[in-house]
Write a structure and sequence with these properties.
With 178 residues, the protein is mainly alpha-helical. It has 2 domains: 100 residues, no CATH class; 64 residues, no CATH class. 52% of the residues lie in helices and 6% in strands. β1 and β2 form a beta hairpin.
Length: 178
């Protein structure tokens, strides 16, 4: 299966398949499969897809997402920036509206993104390091994020499309048309 990396195409297909993606999410939620079995399938597909995608050709995640940082992330990130944590927070962070005692960068794209690469990659926050979160266990509980990232991340797009093919069911296929 061809890997799609064109962001315009991914965004367009995301709009076209929005209803289908939500139906597939519902299908997965009701699928008679154990969470760890689904994780194995997703991890295998993710490994296949990520081996064919160079994130530095895209870096869209760093252009459109606001990663969540905690105090540990901030201490790690600032460890080689020649600035204090207080200065870093003041210059680059805002308090997160979504999570207590957490922060987000105050601008997009990420202020540390240069030529599609993080200039502090070795010290990047956990949220950045684990993005797009497909290697984590309990995939079934992160489907809202998958739907959210489907139109912005080539990895998520391709993994979700392949997952549809692997788990395709005649009854599900019929339900999409209704």
């Amino acid at each position: 299966m061809k890997i799609e990396t064109n962001l315009e195409t991914i965004n367009l297909v995301g709009k076209q398949k929005e209803k289908e993606n939500w139906k597939f999410r519902s299908y997965l939620k009701n699928l008679d499969i154990r969470s760890n079995e689904l994780d194995k399938i997703v991890h295998k597909i993710n490994d296949e897809v990520t081996s064919q995608i160079d994130c530095t050709k895209c870096a869209n995640c760093c252009k459109v997402n606001y990663p969540v940082l905690d105090e540990k992330d901030i201490a790690k990130f600032t460890s080689n920036l020649n600035m204090s944590i207080k200065e870093f927070k003041s210059a680059y962070l805002i308090i997160s509206n979504d999570e207590k005692d957490k922060y987000n960068f105050n601008s997009m794209p990420c202020p540390f993104l240069i030529d599609n690469k993080c200039n502090n990659y070795a010290n990047r926050p956990e949220d950045c390091e684990s993005y797009p979160h497909l290697t984590k266990d309990k995939f079934i509980f992160r489907l809202m994020g998958v739907i959210e990232y489907y139109s912005i991340c080539p990895i998520v797009f391709n993994v979700y499309e392949r997952l549809k093919k692997v788990l395709w069911r005649r009854d599900w296929k019929k339900s999409i048309k209704s």
